[in-house]
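Bug: token stream looks shifted between consecutive jobs. Job 1:
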Amino acid sequence: MADGPMVVLSDESQRTSGEDARSMNLEAGRAVAETIRTTLGPRGMDKMLVDQGGNVVVTNDGVTLLEEMDVDHPAADMVVDVATTQEEEVGDGTTSAVILAGALLGNAEELLEQDIHPTSIVAGYRHAAETVTEVFEDIATEVDPDDTEVLEQVAGTAMTGKGAETAKDLLSSMVVSAVRAAVREDGTVDQDAVDVRQFYGASIDDSEFVDGILFDIEPVHQNMSRDLDDANVLVYEGDIEVSETEVGAEASVGDMGDLQGFVEREQSELADKVDAIVEAGADVVLADGGIDEYAAELLVENGITAFRRVDDDKRQRVAAATGAERVGDLKLLTADHLGHAGSVSERVIRDVTVRRQADHESTVVFGDLPEEGVGTILLRGGTEHVLDEVERAVVDSIGVVSAAIEDGYVLPGGGAPEIEASLALREEADSVEGREQLAVEAFAEAFEDGPRTLAENAGHDAIDALVDMTARHDAGDVNVGIDADTGELVEMFEDGVVEPLRVKTTAVNSAVDASTMILRIDDVISAGDLSVGGEDEDEGGAGGPPGGMGGMGGGMGGMM
């Protein structure tokens, strides 16, 4: 050991150090951004993802793409986290955030080739991010929660390019109505109070906002009422069946009298449970477990409508909306545990004829609820794939409208904030000392990548667009952006292209966090049994050091 270096890693461990590790990590991060780059903007292209089971997803939603893709590279996964964070924080801007992260990594690689130390690049990027945030806050426009027009523009901007354009005005109006109804007293939005449901078989134009809760589950008995007014609602965390000890017990029956007594004891147990429900005054029961046929008959006789095996989300949603307290023991049930709904009714969503036999799909609607802000966006569409994409667009819109209401500030879209920030960064770079100045300038250049991609995806000349936008912003037109349809420069607020301030600030912070973390890595050590590409070493070379792009490229190639 005195004649050579001490070995502390096992023979199976693999290690990549220094420039090699950094280069492979930067390449992996940029590859993620390049994969989804063409989806950006109202004219972005869609991607088709096919998994091993043959299931198909067609979308241009950034976070959906990255979640569905087989990304195995650890550095690439950090960039995927950018989209995940963006989605969780605000619901939109995932593609823009990832493209920015990719551009920051690409520019950082050029700086590294000029012998700029990673810590200098990281410091410059951090400084630039703070400057960008200040710029965004300076140019942001205040929006009031009652400003329906601007909020609908925010919703519509988030939907643009996601398959919902044909009914954008209708869907935007529905989203704003739903979100505004879910605003709490402290000004925050309870997004869980807004449910999104889909039924295919009609036009998107037939979508609507329903003031209440919908769930597609049939009453346990065909003779139970489908139309009730002023209903008391019981949310029961159990079943209305014979107890397990009774069902599992072995009974020795000597004659028919013994058999009859055994059956009567079971029926008596069920009758006691139903009596407890009746005495409490319940009109509707949502049970976690099953409901015995005999118990169902008793409930019908008492005019009670019951639903069995209702999942936890639905039970919780109904309990919160009706004011019911979830009960686990019917022996403790009182009228105080019950919630209230002004109406509980069945609504036929669509008629279906299968082999000349009429059938229908219906849903149960809990309406006229005491808790305000409970609503459901009911989406219609021709096919399941279309509806899935429209639902993703609507969910994104709910997030951005909520952010606009909670924060009270919006920005112009169309690349306007990015160009304004890029100009500010170039000016700021002159006041930064040392090599960090180069990092700030690199950040400014990376910020232009979004508007450039927006123009390219719309089929316009990206260089001309950037030059013209820069000139207009340099002249003081801070809200001017590119119209993706015409390629012309227009005032974004007048054109109705508006985004919440939080979309941009979160994207910047997430992209900077991911890129700087990757930049600071100079050593990658993997365990011997870690196969980054999910293949044997002799089958794809992916069993090598994490950073070998074989694993990631193979995964994406199989999905795209």
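Job 2, same session, no restart:
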Amino acid sequence: MKRQIREVRYFLFGQHFSDGLRITLAILIPSVVLYRFGQFETGLIISLGAFWVSITDAPGPVVHRRNGMLYGLLVVVLVSLITGFARLNVWLLGVEILLFSFFFSMFALYGNRATAVGTAGLLAMILTMDRELEPAAVWQYGALVCAGGLWYTAISLTFSQLRPYRAAQQALGECIHEISKFLMIKADFYSIRTDLQEDYRKLMAQQAIVSEKQDAVREILFKTRVIVKETTWTGRLLVLTFSDILDLYEQITAMYYDYPSIRERFGKTGVLDDIARLIRQLAIEMDYIGLAIQSNRPYKSRKDLMRHLERLKTKIDDIGKQDTEGSNLVLKKILITLRNLNQRLNDIHTYSPTVLSEKPQKNRTAEYSRFVSHQEIDPKLAVNSLTLSSSIFRHSLRVTIACLVGFVAAKLIAYGNHGYWILLTASLILKPAFSLTKQRNYERIIGTVIGGLIGVGLLILIPNTTGLFWVMLFLMIGAYSFQRTNYIVMVILMTPYILILFRFLGLGGISVAEERVVDTLIGCVIAFAASYLFPHWESQQLKNLLRDVLVANRAYLRKLVESLSGKPLTLLEYKLVRKDVYVSSANLSAAFQRMTSEPQSKQWHKNEIHQFVVLNHILSSNIATITSARLNAEHPSACPPEILRPVRRSLTVLNESLKKLDPAPPQPAAEPPASEPVLPEKPETVVTEDRSLKEQLDFIQKVSHDIGKLTDTILT
């Protein structure tokens, strides 16, 4: 029950719920106010403009949001005017649909915000094409749409100005929430009752979500000037907390052990259940910290985890005394890791103003900029993408064909007065990936049917207009809160909201519900059929993603070699390499998950790709274990050549695998060749061979060889 309560609180204090409230108020206020003055139709057009611009207001830095909304406003006003005149001639309208559906779909080349601007343009065209507008009224219509867009932009920017850190707090809290889920999945690896392959599948899927949330936090933190400059206590706290959370995530990722072995050796002792229980308690503690940050409230630890750690230590010591032949060293390592995690959690929620008041370094802004991607709006990218080898070009062709077919179907099928719903459904369902289109199709149909039944029931049971208004308000907030996170819930809530709105407009109830369901089914059929045109299967890009993961792990391994060779390890460079590993692994995991939803005949080496994902996770986890330990050491010593031999062989194997995946893989200019890492001829400090380190490096070599064999199998 406590977990469900936390989930509800995360939702209520989260970015998406606050967005839902803001969008609902911005849409509702013009219509309600002008209704009082007998200008309800005028208010609806202003609300429509506010809704279209709200689509472009995706979470991110305020400057990017402002620019996105202003460009979106320009697009929807121009499209409204053009469509208002084009609709007077059916052939001219058909040409507009042909050109605009392709043009706006190509916006996906420039990132999510540009995609949202293109979506707003498409919606403006579709929702204007059936409006009864005289030529003289088109200009007034465009002006009212512009007023609505400006109204929403003003509200959104005002909220951001009043609470400049709120978006960053919400994004950071959501990121910690997802990392806590990642840690919760890690606990299952120590339970003898779970299937390890299923645990890895869940872990890889969650890794993709965590990577997405981390990118969202980087976007907001490192591209928001007031936070990057660290001139306030809150700004420094957010940046420092995110940095520590990334280090904490690295520790969680590095928690790799030979799970089949420890399950076999210690499963009967019950200690693994204790470890799993303690990891879950740490995950819950982390979840509460994320909730405190998201809700902007202080948090005091509710658990005495040190007491549980001491109990675990006692049990591990008892196992060591009883098992004279074996060794409990691996259990002691797990205990040390859990203590470190607990200490990091304590540090995060006990930051003091003294710690955060230290003068920030002048070059911090430049450092932060290296952790975020920068998307330039270059027309050459669109020109170069006009080829069937581009997935976005193929997607744009599919959307164009689907919209044209939907337009013709709407004109030929004389069922109701809202034929544009067919185009609306087809354009919104189609996604660049086949699996996403398939999922959206299913969710749209189920959501529309369920929502239609709910809507009809509400119209029958609540004849009172005031009651319907409050129900509609609730549905609006819910629909706009879930529009970016849960599509099926959004559709379920949006459908009765639309039906109630049409009742207020005097356009009937049950008949409109029937029409919406029929039009949705037609649109879904068109979209599903179009998804088979010029398909771009996930398997077609997996080879590049496999290569990216190997390139990232090779760079990660090189940092380990440099550290073991006695070369000082720069923290910034190490974190950049670590980020590349996380991002590339998450991209591969996400693509693999999408591929499993595609037709069986299009799934390329499904089992082998899964093993490849798991092995690379194991490889990066072991690299992180050694490298982070050396970073934390005060004076790490250089290792003799014989210790380095396994890791040098690992680099050679990774290079060979890369050559097979791509005859000419990208080589970092500043890096030495993998087979000949830079080693000091005579290390200043020669240490005796560390058996534990040697075993870890030997294991890294074994995993690298397994990856090499798997690469051969995949390419066969």
